[in-house]
Amino acid sequence: MDLATIIGILLGIGAIIVTILLGSGLGLFIDIPSIMIVFGGTLAATFVAYPLKEVLGIIKVTMRLFIFKIEKPEDIIANLVEISNKARKGGLLSIESDIKNASDPYLAKALQMTVDGVKTGDIAAIMQSKMALAKKNLKSGSDLYASMGSFAPAFGMVGTLIGLVQMLANLDDPSSIGPKMAVAMITTFYGAILANLFFIPMSGKLKIRCDEEISNMNIIYEGVISIREGEHPRLMEDKLSVYLGPNHTPSEE
């Protein structure tokens, strides 16, 4: 579970509620027509901009923001080094047990092709294709939330304009100008909150998730190709350690 996402949302909502309560009641900031135009308009624009399948998949994408588990790069490298050592000593067939124990389907498929004697070029092509597809699927969720982050403020302004038109149409009643102006501004408030507390930050978090997963897939890709080519495990570890940053020092044998 990603506590940072949960903490951030709760802190944001809490700060807004406390600020409102210090100056007025929450009821002043609740307006059903404003909610309808901002939420409904944002959702409608998203349906227009994206295929139905991607929009309906927003629930699955959103779950990745809160429930997300990814293997540490150093653990992946350590596992690949262990497999490489085993393959170097006992041959490629000796790593069949590692295929069954692999929790990552991408790694399992790559190792299976290696054991089956598939040519290095073919393994590389298949793995790169799978990586490109995974990146596309991960990126689509981030792009969708980024678009919603631009739609929400726009429909907030639409709601404000509707409110202003309705207010100007009733200037003969001065006592209603204040309340109508307040309602007109609430839609802008809703749009800003949705965009800047939810949609845009969620898009950014999904981009980070995408980068992490693709980085891990790159480690597996390069590691399996090294194993297939029979490279020395130490050389492979040195090559893969670049994914751990400049402060990492490969282990000594």
From TrEMBL:
Quote a single Gene Ontology cellular component term: plasma membrane
> Could you provide one GO biological process annotation from this protein's UniProt record?
chemotaxis
Q: Pfam family example for this protein?
A: MotA_ExbB
The record's listing under PROSITE patterns reads:
MOTA
Please, which domain of life does this record's source organism belong to?
Bacteria
Keyword NAD set for record: no
| Keywords attached to this entry | Cell membrane, Cell projection, Cilium, Flagellar rotation, Flagellum, Membrane, Transmembrane, Transmembrane helix, Transport
Provide the membrane topology annotation.
Multi-pass membrane protein
Question: Where does this polypeptide localize?
Answer: Cell membrane
Q: Which InterPro entries match?
A: Flag_MotA_CS, MotA-like, MotA_ExbB_proton_chnl
Domain named MotA/TolQ/ExbB proton channel: residues: 100-218
Identify the main location: membrane
Q: Per the similarity annotation, which family is this?
A: Belongs to the MotA family.
Q: Could you tell me what this protein is called?
A: Flagellar motor rotation protein MotA (Proton-driven motors)
Q: In which organism is this protein found?
A: Desulfamplus magnetovallimortis
